[in-house]
Amino acid sequence: MLALTPNPGFVLIFAALAVLVTPRGLSVATIAGAALLALWLLLDREFGAAAAMAQMGLPVVLLKLDALNRSFGIALLISLIAIAMYSGARRNRFEDAAILFLAGGAVSALFLGDLVSFVAAAALAGLAAAALVFVSPLEGANRAGVRLLMWHGLEGLLFLVGVAFHLSAGAESSVIARLDLNSLGGAFIFAALMIRVGAPLAHVWLKDVVSHASPIGGAALSVFTSMLGVYALARFFPAAPLLVPIGALMIVVGSFFAVAQDDLRRAAAYGLTAQTGVSVALVGVGSPLALAGAEGNAFAAIFAFLTLQMALGNALHRLGHARVSGFDGLARTMPISAALIFFGGLAVASAPGLALFAAHAVALEAAGQWDLRALWALIAGGSGVLFVGLALRPALAAYSAAAAAKAGAEAPFSMLLGTALAAFFCVAIGVAPQWLYDLMPAELSFELYAPDRVAQQFELLGAAGVIYFVLLAMGVAPRARASRLLDIDALYRGPLAGAGRWLGVVMLRVYGAGRDAIATFSARAGAALGILISGFDRPYSKSAASALQWVALALMLTVMLLARQL
Amino acid sequence: MTKPNTQASGGGALFLFCAAAAAAGTAFDFNLESAAGFWIGAQPGGAAALGAGAAAFAVVAGYVARALLGRAGRQSVDKEGRDAGVDA
Fold first, then answer.
1. How many residue pairs from chains A and B have C-beta atoms closer than 8 A?
2. Average model confidence (pLDDT) for chain A?
3. ipTM of the complex
4. Which end of chain B lies in a sparser environment, N or C, as judged by fewer CB atoms within 10 Å?
5. If 0-12 CB within 10 Å is exposed, 13-18 middle and 19+ buried, where does residue A142 land?
6. Mean pLDDT of A404-421
């Protein structure tokens, strides 16, 4: 008999089906209730694997709980409660279902104990993410959804090839464990995870989909997509040295675009890439403290970027955009949302007292080795860059004395409530970080609020702000301007797409010409054959066909005579 | 005659916020005996130097990104969108 395995993610998947048929007024309660039930299932269980079953000779482990996946699961499920609150402002059951499928796929993948099931759950999350973009009312969402499907298709292909190579070593190797990057299977799975976390060259999908999703969709995509990749890297490839430069590059690329983008939701997505890069690099460092830092950084970044994306979603809901250049005077029409945007910016910049600071301090401690000093400087300086890009720039525009942005009114109450709930978790983790440290796999006794630690972070953020103000006053810093930045995707969406279209046209013409040639040849051959066959109907007429018949008859008679002689 | 309702900019308060954080942090950094930092951070004022570097990076990144990758103005954005198959 098949025992019922209470993987918390399955609850969300069932809820996704249920939300399609429940009355619309109950969708918030359904999402929040499913998240709470999943959280209860998660916290009520001891560490270890549930009973495995076998399918086609492969072990299927539907639940394997340990400290690593428990902390990621708690962060994702608490975030889902805030998202449920936020979703009350609108009625869209398809979007609700897509969010629950996305969350269900991601949470299921965390707790599955075998590779095949993990890939299936990750693929479900990928499909749901694309569905979440498709249901967005924003212009261009359909095309962004198609591009996301292509990225996830590539990721799924790499996953499947990697798993297939890995399984060739034996059925038992399908159980989730540390993988060897030097093996063919391990390399393919690593490549798939590089897409998931948004490594350089594959980082563009996140900003693309977040900026085209609805306000709630952008928040959900920030939470449930790339962080699954961080978990998988920590699970499969801890202490892989290659992850250090990749993570460092993610910090640089993410920070660069986060301060330059006019669209703040894109900028926040790039900021998430930078903070994900911190986690990726720490996974590569691989010491127990670094792994704890990677996990803590991912945990805190989930809440910080959830807060920021929700606050920006409030502006998007009223203004129709979230561009810095259009935020002038926003604080007068949307004072709470403007304050929450500034708060979200502080949260992602690891300001003391907020969640990311608790993880940022551990990350700096873990990277504080002489051979990792460049990484240490990037992590330390990155928070200053994000402070300027995601806190100061929008706040300067929102609190400027210029004409107020045409917002009309403050965001709906449920959106403010959801954002405030996410902000509350940022504060709660920030002021009482020990419960975050208690969730980490490595036992951590860390005095976060040592005066020198807090003073240095205040000093860094304050100095970044003051210098930025000075440069702005001197006219050196660039003013906010409606603009759009190209990224690496401009290559495949521009020249490569053009080349593809050109190649398609050429191939169509070649195909058409070939089809015409075959039709002409067939017609002529058919006519010739018809003439030949009609000639056979007149065997005694003086024609080449009749001569041929006579020759054939003579040959047959000769052969028969020779056969009799022999 | 009534005075026009002028709104004060919040930029001053933001500057004060940053300046207070920088001043307090730097003062503590110079006066605390046990510097917990590493490398640049272990030097008094090192964190402020890193912050200044971060602000300079933000400014340079803004110019470089606009110069090399930017498509300024709504019209250009739309044109770029059509050219590259990009959605507005």
1. 245
2. 89
3. 0.82
4. N
5. middle
6. 85
